[in-house]
Amino acid sequence: MALNSATAIAHPNIAFIKYWGNSDDGLRLPVNSSISMNLDGLSAKTSVEWDDDLTADEFTLNNEIQSGDSLHRVSRHLDVLRGRLGRQSKAKVASENNFPTGAGIASSAAAFAALTAAGVAAAGKILSERELSTIARLGSGSAARSIPAGFVEWYAADSHEDSYAQSLFPPDHWNLVDVVAVINKGHKAVGSSAGHPSAQSSPLQNARVAGAEERVTRVRGAIQERNFNELATFVELDSNLMHAVMMTSQPPLFYWEPASLKIMSLIREWRAEGLNVCYTLDAGANVHCICVRSDAPIVSSRLNSLSEVLTTLSANVGGGAHVLP
Ligand code: PMV
Fold first, then answer.
1. Binding pocket residue ranges, ligand 1, CB within 6 Å
2. Based on the number of CB atoms within 10 Å of its own CB, is 217 exposed (0-12), middle (13-18) or buried (19 or more)?
3. pTM of the complete model
């Protein structure tokens, strides 16, 4: 590994209590706190090399040279890192995801967490986990939650420094699995960065936000006590509330597809049968089926038998962003 370069790995995360809408779009300060679990096995691996001879930042994603918006967003985040690290040089960034990009599997969370960790390490600096989380947040809000390990809470706050994520419980606290039913591998039409500013146009957003702290408390407690039924109630409620806001915003955002609805309904039936499983969806059609590890094989085999399901991805609770030696 050349001098001035480093490689970091970060996992995407799935939100149990969702982040949707900012009090400050520029700083990505969320209107409510949120809770997530990191997804082990799915990862973004990003190398950053600060290079004094470069005249512009370069970015490859899954070995394809990026230009336009994708390069611009990475370059803007490199500007943030340059400012914090006191560097002028441009950087070469190479990133690989081992899961579909931009399809509601939080690829941007893993990407900006890994970019932050690698960029800081490549400059030979060590920053606190809290500060890494605030910096990652500037690239993609939910990336703040991919810095710490395991079950994570990200705090809503009025200032950049105070809106960070921290680990509530380590990965081995509860052996939950996210079985993602992939029904659409395509890139979503409207990404979350464009979606957040429209949240406040929904007449339902204020009601969603008003109840968010209560749901955060209930989900934190459910994880602490490993109480699956309580978790399922609030995880599904919170996902439904966020999608209700999305659908009633201007312009309306519909991420659910007929197959998403079919799977949501099956998940409720399977839970009534006794399986410990519940659903949640991010800004995409794919359904994240959260279950306890002993029920994961049956959940994934039932999902795979549906003609609408292209594939399933299973992830245990993952660790935090880390720099490779
Ligand atoms: O971090 P962003 O801007 O990609 O927003 C993520 C928003 C959701 O995935 C829909 C919800 C969440 O909390 O992860």
1. 15, 18-20, 34, 106, 108-109, 140-142, 192-193, 282-283
2. middle
3. 0.96
